[in-house]
Specification:
P-loop_NTPase, globular, Rossmann fold, SLFN_3-like_DNA/RNA_helicase, Schlafen group 3-like DNA/RNA helicase domain-containing protein
């Protein structure tokens, strides 16, 4: 958790060339241009302060990815001041600035009902205030008086001020359109700039391919387009697996859109639609892939085809993310469309993600702020000699609100999931959770996976599905808490405790 700068502290740190270490101490990052502009503003405010006064609790470059980052946030007792820094006159960029404030406003109001949006124009040394969707001059003198007023209100606070925006978790501001339908239909969600660009692009003819790992918001783009255009376009949404209740509910809200399982898509007349969207395209079978590819080539000039896929998510032998990516690159080469890449996972808990990635590749160490202590606050592991020994613990977690995820059963033979058949009525398998997530997840790693010589988790079974990839998917479904039963796999348990969590070194230091 970062601590805020005071105004005099920041200006002093910048002027004496210690700002880099000061930012590290406060666990913040900031662009050099923004540091320079904030110092200019800070100096002007300091001129107007009594010599014994300072202004506290400024935070730089807060970035939650789902909205444009916040250049400067000031926190009062009940007020947030959002300062956008500009090198040149903000009036020239008013529309862009106001759009940025609008995107940020709803998220800021999760933290405070009183939000003030300001722009500092460094070239003109002036401040603008956003009022009812317009930018108006706001004197630096009035700004300094306002800050002193808010500082006075903080004098009797028993707890220190913190960056409330930084404390928000994905659960606070992200929704699942397949779970929170009412919120989705009401438009109560955020798209990043890139997501918005892609969604808008789907309104024009061509083949739009979107590549991204789990949690990057691919499906939300497709659903956003449906929500905005279902009355103006005849849309077909193709998805892998079987039709579920959620698809019937979506059909009720968007009657002009058809939701069709990949198993039924080849018997659907694609010519009846203006837009065809294919979700999780790496999981559709080869016959359907060829069918869609041919139709896309023939209709790219007058229809829209949206293809959403994850190259890395291969759960079985028929999954074909690499083939889909090659086709997407071919469409670009043939000038039939564009290929977009989504890189930021919005729903991910960085401590869980850092832990899981390191478990599956012992060489992929987490970032410095993802410490063993932080990981152990959100991840728990337990070793059991067999599945029956693990079941009481798993049941206890289920009773407390966790969802239990198993690997997908093998319909052709024995599988890892068989050992948890006693919990089949209270569990989901990997294929049932794809594209979704849960607050709290309990799952397992057993003898169906092992470490390769280069420290990577690989499959160690003869069952149909890729147990290593499925285990990764299951563990990355957790948003808040992850629990993992290590079942009769000492190598994996020792690697997690000694290398990932560093407990071997901890113990060594005690002796």
């Amino acid at each position: 958790m970062s601590t805020g700068f005071s105004l005099r502290e920041f200006v002093s740190s910048f002027n004496d060339n210690v700002i880099s270490n000061a930012l590290k101490y406060h666990t913040m990052q900031s662009k050099p241009r923004e540091q320079h502009d904030f110092v200019l503003l800070g100096k002007e405010i300091i001129k107007l302060l009594p010599p014994e006064r300072d202004i506290f609790d400024f935070y730089l470059d807060t970035d939650l990815k789902v909205v444009p980052d916040f250049d400067i946030l000031y926190f009062g007792r009940e007020t947030i001041i959002n300062i956008d820094l500009k090198d040149e006159d903000g009036i020239k960029k008013a529309d862009r600035i106001l759009m940025k404030f609008e995107k940020q406003k709803r998220l800021l109001r999760l933290c405070s009902s009183n939000v003030i949006n300001l722009v500092y124009c460094a070239d003109k040394n002036k401040v603008l205030r956003e009022i009812n969707g317009h930018l108006s001059p706001f004197s630096i003198d009035d700004f300094a008086k306002l800050l002193l007023k808010y500082e006075d209100q903080k004098e009797k606070l028993s707890k220190p001020i913190v960056n409330q925006v930084e404390l928000l978790t994905p659960k606070d501001y992200l929704i699942s359109p397949t779970k929170q339908i009412d919120e989705f239909v009401a438009g109560e969600y955020w798209l990043s700039n890139k997501q918005q660009i892609i969604s808008d692009r789907l309104a024009s003819p061509g083949i739009v391919s979107v590549k991204g790992q789990a949690g990057t918001g691919k499906t939300l783009i497709a659903f956003d387009f449906i929500r905005r255009f279902y009355q103006r376009r005849k849309i077909l949404f193709i998805f892998p697996g079987y039709t579920r209740e959620i698809h019937s509910k979506l059909k009720e809200h968007f009657p002009e859109t058809d939701f069709v399982s990949g198993k039924d898509a080849t018997s659907t007349n694609l010519d009846d639609y203006d837009v065809v969207l294919v979700d999780e395209a790496q999981r559709i079978n080869g016959i359907l892939r060829i069918f869609i590819n041919q139709w896309a080539h023939n209709n790219a000039g007058r229809k829209t085809i949206g293809i959403f896929f994850d190259v890395e998510q291969r759960l079985g032998r028929k999954d074909s993310g690499g083939i889909v990516e090659s086709l997407a690159n071919g469409y670009v080469s043939d000038n039939l469309g564009e290929l977009y890449s989504l890189e930021n996972s919005f729903r991910a808990n960085k401590y869980i993600t850092g832990f899981v990635r390191n478990v599956f590749d012992l060489n992929e160490r987490p970032k410095a702020d993802v410490t063993s202590k932080k990981i152990r606050e959100v991840v728990q592991i337990k070793y059991f000699a067999d599945a029956d020994s693990a079941i009481p613990w798993i049941r206890k977690l289920i009773d407390s609100g966790y969802i239990f995820l198993t690997l997908t059963p093998d319909s052709h033979g024995t599988s890892s999931a068989d050992q948890f058949v006693k919990l089949s009525d209270v569990s989901k398998n990997t294929h049932e959770i794809i594209g979704d997530e849960a607050d709290n997840v309990v799952t397992y790693l057993d003898g169906s996976v092992k470490y390769s010589k280069d420290g990577k988790i690989i499959k160690n079974s003869t069952e149909y599905y890729f147990t290593d990839h499925e285990s990764y998917v299951n563990m990355t479904r957790a948003r808040e808490q992850l629990a993992v039963a290590i079942v009769n796999n000492r190598d994996v348990f020792n690697a997690i405790t000694e290398i990932v969590l560093g407990l071997k070194n901890d113990n060594a230091n005690k002796h």
